[in-house]
Each structure stands twice: as C-alpha cells, then as structure tokens.
Amino acid sequence: MLRPVYTEPDKCRRCYKCIRECPVKAIQVDHDRISIMPDRCIWCGRCTEVCPTGAKKLRDGLTRARMTVAKYPSAILALDPAYISEFDNVTPEVLVAAIRRLGFGGVSETALSARLVTGRIRRFLEEARPGAYYTSTCPVVVNYIRKYRPERLADLIPVVSPMIAHARLLKQLYGDDLRIIYAGPCIGAKYDADKHSDLISVAITFQDLRQWFDRAGIDLQTVTSGPDDRFVPRQADSGSLYAAEGGLLAELGALTGTTGHMAFSGLAAVKATLSDSRLHPDRPLLIELNACKGGCINGPGCSHRTTPAANRYTLFSRRTARPTPEPDHKPDLEATFHADPQPEESFTEQRIRETLASIGKYAPEDELDCGSCGYGTCRDFARALLEGRARNNMCIAFMRRMAHDKATVLLRTIPVGIVIVNSNLRIADMNRAFAAAIGGETLAAYELFPGMEGVPLQEICAFEPYFKTVIATGEELKERRIRGNDRTWLLSIYNINPKKQVLGVLQNLHEPSVRKEWLIEKTREVLGNHMTTVQKIAGLLGENAAYTDATLRSIIEAYDRGVEEIPTKHPSEE
C-alpha cells in the first residue's frame, strides 16, 4: 500500500518539528535521514502542516484521478460535507458545474450517507448497555485506537465511515462498475480509500481539487450553472454538520431529540479522553471524536483560506433544518475493526540510565525535558534511542556541550595564540599560547587566572584598537604585522558574531617555528600568484619565469627539510 505522506529528503533541514508535533512519534531518524514509520503512523497529516520547508508531502492523488476520469466518463466525485466551508464563495450548483467540466459524469454529497450513519448509531445506542462509546467516523481516530488503544476497540461503534457508506450507496444505485473519486479534507481518507479500493478509486484533497481546476483553466467565479448541474441522486438536506466538532451529535439530536452526549476534537483531547478510566456512565454515552481540532472543516487537506470560526459559521448557516429521509437503498454499514497494537519494548531502568548518560545526563537534574529533540521528556528520547528511532545528535543540549568541550580542547592545545573578545572589548576566553606570545605579566596573570574571562583587553596588550575597529565595522583583519617592545607579532581578527564577538589569532614571529610556517605560507602565496601571471604572459617571461619558479620552490623545500641554504644560481649557470 502506498503511503499517504512521505518525506522529500532534499528539503528536510532536520529541525525535528515533525517529531515534536507528531502525536504518536511515528518519525524515524536514521543517519540524518528522517522518514515516516508507516506501522506507527495514524495518517493525521499534522507533519505536513507544520513542516517549515515543505519536506513532508502528501501523496499525489491527482494524477490517478485524472486518468480515472479520462477512462471512465461516468465517474462520480463524492464531496465531503466540508466542501460547504471550503468553497464558500460559490453556490453548490456552480461547484457541480465546474466539477463536471473536469470530465465527471456526476457529483454526489457524502452528507447523504451521514444520515444513514446517524440512524445506525442511534439504533446502536438504543440497544447498548450503559457505558461510554466512541464514534468511528474519523479514520484517524480509528487508526489511533487500533494501534495505541486497542483495549478501546470494544467501545468503538462498529459502523463504517460516511465515505465508505456513501461509496456503497452509490454502487447500489449505479452499479458495481461505477468509479468513485472522493474529495475531502482528510489524509486518513487516503489510507481508507486504499484499503477499500473496490469502492473508491482514489481519494484527493480539496487542495488537489483546486489545483485540478487551475490546471484545467477553470475559474469558479466565472462558471455558470445549468439545469443539469445538480447533485446526484439528490441534494442532501442534512448530514453536512458532520464536518464540524459536535456536528454528529447535532444531527443525532435533531433525529432523536436526545442530548447529553459529548464531543472532543484535536488529537491531544482524543488521547486524553481515551485514557480516562474514570468515566462510568449509568447509560449509553456517545462520545464524538475527531482528530482535527474543530472538525473536518480544519483538516490538513483544506486550503485554509478562512478562519476555523468562519468555516464553522458557514457550515451551520447553510444547513437545512429539514432532515433528509433515509434512501430506499440501504447499504451495509457494519464495520469490523482489527487491533494493530504497536509493540513497546520494555527497557530496564539501568539501560535507560546508561542511555541518558551517553547524552550527558548523569543525574535527574540533567534531564531538562526541553523538547528540542522532538520528544516530551529526556526519558522518552532515551527510549527512542534504544528503539533505533532517534540519534543522540538530536539532543541540542548534548550537542552544545560537545561543541563547547571540543572548542575548549582546541583552544587550549592549539599552538597559536587565541583570544575571544566581546563587544565591550573584554576577554571571553583566551589560551595560554596567546599569553605566552605577549609574555611578561600577561603570562604570569594567565597562570593564576586561566582564560582571563572578563578582563579588559587593553590591560594585557596594546592590540585593543585593532579589535575595536573590527567590532565597529565588521571587517575582518588578516595577518597584520605589529611591532613593539622589540617583538614582532602577526595578528588576525575574525568575526564570530559580527560586531558582537570576534576571535583574535596572534603569532610571535620571533618564535622559529612561527617564522618558518609564516615564511612558507607567504612563499606559497607568492608562488601561486606568480604562476597565475606566468600562465598569462609566459611567452614574454620565458627563461626568467622558470628561474623565479625554481627559486621559490627551493625555498619551500629547504624549509620543509630544515635546510638553511637557499639556491641562488640561475638555471643557465648550472
């Protein structure tokens, strides 16, 4: 089965926002490659909404939909009830006309089947024992229960979703050869459509439908409708409220007059509700659950052109109070849900502590639970590491500590003088080589106060004006020779954070090793520049070019061998 959501590797910047937002942590990081774990995923589509670079992609259903319509002109587009708020700026007749221009033989409202589902839920409640029962109309909620709360399957009302009920109804009316394409706001519907490919050819989102209009050059504002542009087999007068939180309960109340049931939306609320073991009603209690906060009208497949409040207002204001009579054709609405529990490995406390220690968390106070890795707690992250779903470089605190430790070691051991200076011209850090290059009291002070953090730079050396200029202008200083007190230094200043923090590199040219390295580097630089010129005017330089080249190279070779003699003969004299 194809995955409804996938990751485009080239666009992923490994910010881990998808992990932070994923309600079931169905994201795996393997050698910096981030992918969705299909066995764990409930296909809510949250990652596609929050990914800042668009690396999380919805599977393209438009190509298959267009091919289906081209091959089967009688194909019907089944519209989710949320279309009312999605296409709120056109009449239903205009929308039908535009869809028919795409090549469809007809358009039908899934709200028709919602009436059937409502009736079946009513009968279930009339026969049920006291207890809490959950709706099965949201495929994402069903997937969550199957995988993460399988003990709640017995409380899940065994009724198919309105999408499946609608497809079965249309097949009864128009024959099993009918091709049905579903359009709605739900990514979980793509997964359900794949499982019921005998009923639904492909599921597309409202975003896909809008893109289809654009590709076909159809402007909804200029489309006019005719007498044949009507929903088939008829327009639904009820069922549209299924697209909003509490809509199913409103439809049920209109049908039976019953009240007192509850509705919750958003996966955080769904998870909390399903985890509540204190709920023991003395009558059958219906709990409507929807994965998307506010209902399907805020699903990931919507274009989100307006606010959730506006979507809900549009949906309820356009609803017709008169309920649709049940159709003569009544498809099978029974559903059987199979548990697919995701195994959770059990790790000993020792293994968890060892894993925490591997990322620098040796005591409880080290467990920041900052969530930067994407997991709620450090212990959750440790379990993900043990399960192979995460890597230790996802912990920002750990990586920051590693970078700091490496930088500290480098700063202390590098043979050249290093000093880090802030915008106040005070020392942030300094190594011993810098103090030794200056010598005297500075070296003695360093031995007593390593790093010399906070000391004004002007108190230990006369280089402050150079640092002040770089901080003020942001222009780096490279290899400035400075003389003073019978010494010669080579100073370079680089930006760490322009105009806020800089790094100075100081070398005492009186040190033999420094003089040698500096002379070799300068010779290589002169050689490189010279040979570029030689290539341009080689014909004019002739033999002299070869002499200069040989002389410069002999300097480098002599210093590399530690030889003091430098050949001075012209090649023609040998």
Automatic annotation (TrEMBL):
Domain 4Fe-4S: 351-412
Segments forming domain 4Fe-4S ferredoxin-type: 3-30, 32-61
Biased composition (Basic and acidic residues): 325-337
Domain of life the protein comes from: Bacteria
Keyword NADP: no
Gene3D superfamilies xref list: 3.30.70.20, Electron transport complex subunit B, putative Fe-S cluster, Fe-only Hydrogenase (Larger Subunit), Chain L, domain 3, PAS domain
Single annotated GO MF: 4 iron, 4 sulfur cluster binding
Region (Disordered) location: 320-347
A Pfam family reported for this protein in Swiss-Prot or TrEMBL: Fer4_10
Annotated keywords: 4Fe-4S, Iron, Iron-sulfur, Metal-binding
Entry protein name: 4Fe-4S dicluster domain-containing protein
Organism this protein belongs to: Candidatus Tidjanibacter faecipullorum
Lineage: Bacteria, Pseudomonadati, Bacteroidota, Bacteroidia, Bacteroidales
